[in-house]
## 1
Amino acid sequence: RCETCSEEEAKYRCPRCMKYSCSLLCVKKHKLALSCNGVRDKTAFVSVNEFTDLNLLSDYRFLEDVGRTADAAARHPTMHSPTTKKLLYCLRNKARRCNIDLRTLPVGFTKRRENSTTFNYAEKKFYWHLKLVFPHCHAEYTLKGVPDDKTLADILKPYIDPVESDPVVCQRLKIYTVAPQSDVQILMKIENRKQNSVRYNELDANRSLLDNLKGKVIIEYPTLFVVLKTLKNDMVVLGQDASEPAKNSDSESSSLSSMEEGEIRDSS
């Protein structure tokens, strides 16, 4: 019997959730009710007892598809474009002169596709692609073309300022807007640390974005975490943990091996 209407004899079976249906109408109803897309999950777990030759063939074809996709990405024109490589080299070089260790990812990575950071040679300043994360409200906002001489306080005004913020955004970030400004803390994750040793640098809201990024490692673009001192729990700020003294970000970045630096240069 059809598992949607329970009246007619089933004719179809959904590759995704294995539900039986009798007609196109019931197929659409079951997709809507179960939020099912009808596409078979090629990575779904299959126990050893239920594993058959069909599952083996499916896995083999899945790996072939992955290989073809990776090969197509490697052959993409932008991967070997001299113009793209030259622009990235100039961008990293300008950042290095500002004491910022800017690193780029290979083509195909999400952050590489998202990044819209540019350097204006006439004005001699960066216009950054910036991501703001408000973990207490589970909210993220992406900003494009943020000038490097803009202070962090001015960047945050449209989001958490009780007067200047957008009403819709203000309502979503209400926990921030009602909190005193002294309770707001801006953090940035320190790169090149072990996964079980995540630490953050505290930034100065009264200083410019460029001043805050100096001496730090940036992968593609900065991601700033806006937290409240009274609520943050598992975000350890470097220098505020009694078991670990504060360190200069320059010394951390300089401790990278030449092999790692070479890999990053090659990948870009």
## 2
Amino acid sequence: MAGGLEPHLEVLRRELGGPAVLSVLVALIAVAITFLIWRFVQGRRSSRKAVLLLGLCDAGKTLLFARLLSGRYRDTQTSITDSSAVYRVSQDKSTNVTLIDLPGHESLRLQFLERFKAAARAIVFVVDSVAFQREVKDVAEFLYQVLVDSTVLRNAPALLIACNKQDVTMAKSAKLIQQQLEKELNTLRVTRSAAPSSLDGSATGGPAQLGKKGKDFDFSQLPMKVEFVECSARGSKGEEGEADLEALQKWLVKVA
């Protein structure tokens, strides 16, 4: 193959004035191809404008959604469908994302994730910091299902674990929640990888590997950037007070 191309390269060298010019031309072509690939990747990312709010029932997603949009408190109830709205992350009206609050009920959450995951620029996974110790296995199970999803892995949207209800005295810290989730996800990974195959030969528990093989799981092993923040959609003064969402709002500015 190389021998067949050599006569053509020699012709190019003579016509272009020598090997140096040809080298420059090859370099320019390489730069152009790299630029086109970069533009393609950026174009795909810019087409994903949704920030998905995920979490178990009663984690506070819907109140958080309302607070981000209006700043006001309102009574909420368990959602059975999605809610979406444009959220301006700064005074610049052109900088915005679409917030989508998805139901947290076990029978609904995966079907709604399936519907919206391809549009996700980022994911906010809301955790009830007060009930966390009791719900840690359920939280980890849902988060595991999100993290091993093929579309999520491919697109690698930014992920924020929002540790909500920090206004309550018994709330667990973001650091403790991170440590417990890493431990539970590591256990799930081991359990799922050991699951028997189904009749068609596929594993019943989904992908066998989360993170790096041979190492205990931690969030730094994922293809997306994962951050933890503490927040309170209700606020320290209840209905009359302001929510504590500053860390979440700063993160939204970064990912918009």
## 3
Amino acid sequence: SVDCSFSRGVCDWKQDADDDFDWNPADRDRGDGYYMAVPAFVGHKKDMGRLKLLLTDLKPKSSYCLIFSYRLAGERVGKLRVFLANKKTAPVWEQNKGKDERWRTGKIEIFQGAETTNSVTFESERGKGKTGEIGVDNVVLNSGLCPED
């Protein structure tokens, strides 16, 4: 299993150079470490910020479960999408607007074929709102299928 919370810095996170803005570290409310966030006011409507997690040593023909915490806080804050490297065209997960400010859990099954997935990209799209933020934290990759809720 790979544990990629941002406080420990174990994983290979890269900012995309071809996007419109960067994700930045933000302090957690309880003060224990930090998460990555995009404030609602950066950039212009429809601008994108991408944060890529480089994955190494994933075995072909295996399944993995990517579990992460996310938050879409604020009115009309935008969208959060997740892309896998070998399926660039369509997001494998997408969320727009949160019901509240709470952190939620996202889960994505990653099936490795002959080609292995070598990265996961978290993409934030700027919405119309001026307040709030999109946040991601506690990204964990476990081998095997995702657990049922």
## 4
Amino acid sequence: MPARWKGKAAEAKALAEPMSTIVYRLQSSLIESNSQGILSGSSVLLAAHEEQTELFNHACFGRPVITTEKNKQWFQLCLEEAFYLCTVMKCIKIVGQNNCVKNEEELWDYMSSKRVNFPILYKAYSHLRTKNWVVRAGSQYGVDFVAYRHHPALVHSEYAVIATSDEDGNGNRRLKVWSDFHCTLRLCGSVAKTLLVLHISRNCNDCDGASSSPWSINYYSVEERIVARWNPEQSRENCTVAEKEP
């Protein structure tokens, strides 16, 4: 399914300013200002000045929080976004209630306790983000994420993403029977999205102890599977079979 741009100039605007460039500018700004996020339940709150506010909005990280402060804008980051900014882009630090900076292992333990199946979901999120897809929550479509090739103001989301794993107790029991596929595909078709299943597999059989640490991500690989409904009309030959002579 081709990208569905919003307006005639949308594609040209996206090409003129790639998402990778916008994300790099945000990364540089956050490093320069030594930005810190604050753990708050199942999210992370981060304050941004005027320039960073624009970059956050353009890079599609977090959601703005309405406050009465005039010179500071707060953003609410989901756990996957916050961990990605902290550990992959290394542009923010995250503190707890005691105002002490959390290391990667402490963050991993905290986030894994707050969100079911966090390791699998984070691996799926980071896999797409490192490929410069804009990744947003997909709960309104019954999936884990939706992926855009650029800012949602310029293009409609292209993929509805579900992260799966064969591991026991992974907390994701969807797409186990044909009826799950049928319902999900019908929903994706009704909103003009392609179903992308990211199957997360652990490559190391002797690294069970690593599953409770952030370094366990290094032991997982991602297999991309695009699932589509079979359309018999599109599969038929254009020519008709000649009738046999009597």
